[in-house]
Design a protein that fits this description.
The chain is of the alpha+beta class and 256 residues long. It has eight helices and nine strands. Strands 6-5-4-9-8-7 form a six-stranded antiparallel β-sheet, sandwiched between helices. A three-stranded antiparallel β-sheet has the order 1-3-2. A hairpin with a 4-residue loop joins strand 4 and strand 5. The radius of gyration is 21 Å and the shape is elongated.
Length: 256
């Protein structure tokens, strides 16, 4: 990482180096060697090793055989929070545009450790509307954003998320059959969107599309929710949500 001139008298190089290391490891899918991290930071091997040992003792890193280092569970939370903030920022203008065009509720959901959570909502200005709440936990099997996110996870992660939430039946339309759910996930992977037709809320429909938060990784999804009586032109809604989700993904890709 190139050296940048620091003029502030309050700047602490060791703290900056520690943050650089965490950010570097958060972007790596594999453990990284001490030699490679030293090259990144541009400091002596002994100085970098002391920082790594400190981060390890604080529970942010794990040491692997061969002087390799990787994020710990706590460190993974650091990565998730950083990715969440970036995704939320990138999504804002596209969510506003979508909400302005359709005048329906637009929501952003994010995959956290063992659940899918609403992290941003732009409410419909119409008197009769569907709504979401920031911080709300989303059913992975009975919501469009849940289906979009879970469809792109490994089988083990899908099973974990479904088990953690529970295959609750909200009404007669809720899909709880595993083979039927797998067909829904396959549809998402093939067509790039999911639909919740009163599966979680009677009288409401929701259309979602996945967001690629990193190359090869779907960690978020965008949705539009509205009363079923207004879901007349489904294809137009689907096209709009997919277009916005694709634009967010492209913006995030440029940052990686």
């Amino acid at each position: 990482m190139p050296e940048v001139e620091r003029k502030s008298e309050y700047f602490i190089r060791a703290v900056s180096n520690a943050i650089d290391i965490l950010e570097f490891l958060s972007a790596s899918a594999e453990p990284v060697s001490l030699v490679r991290i030293t090259e990144l930071v541009g400091q002596s091997k002994s100085s970098v090793f002391r920082i790594l040992c400190t981060l390890e003792q604080k529970g942010l890193l794990e040491r692997r055989p061969g002087d390799l280092f990787a994020l710990s569970t706590t460190g993974l939370s650091f990565r998730s929070n950083r990715t969440l903030a970036r995704s939320n920022q990138a999504a804002q203008p596209h969510m506003r545009e979508l909400a302005r065009e359709f005048r329906e509720t637009v929501s952003l959901a994010f995959l956290l450790d063992n659940h899918i959570e609403i992290v941003n909502v732009m409410d419909s200005p119409q008197r009769i509307r569907m709504f979401n709440v920031v911080g709300g936990i989303i059913p992975p099997h009975a919501s469009s954003v849940g289906k979009c996110i879970i469809a792109h996870q490994t089988e083990a992660v899908r099973e974990h998320l479904l088990t953690a939430y529970g295959m609750h039946s909200f009404n007669a339309r809720t899909i709880t059959d595993t083979s039927q759910l797998e067909q829904e996930f396959q549809h998402v992977r093939e067509h790039g969107y999911a639909v919740d037709r009163e599966e979680s809320t009677t009288g409401g429909c929701c259309f979602g599309a996945p967001i690629w938060t990193k190359p090869g990784e779907v960690g978020a999804a965008l949705s539009m929710s509205l009363p079923k009586d207004r879901a007349i032109d489904e294809q137009r809604i689907i096209d709009g949500v997919r277009r916005a989700a694709r634009a967010i993904s492209e913006d995030l890709a440029q940052e990686n």
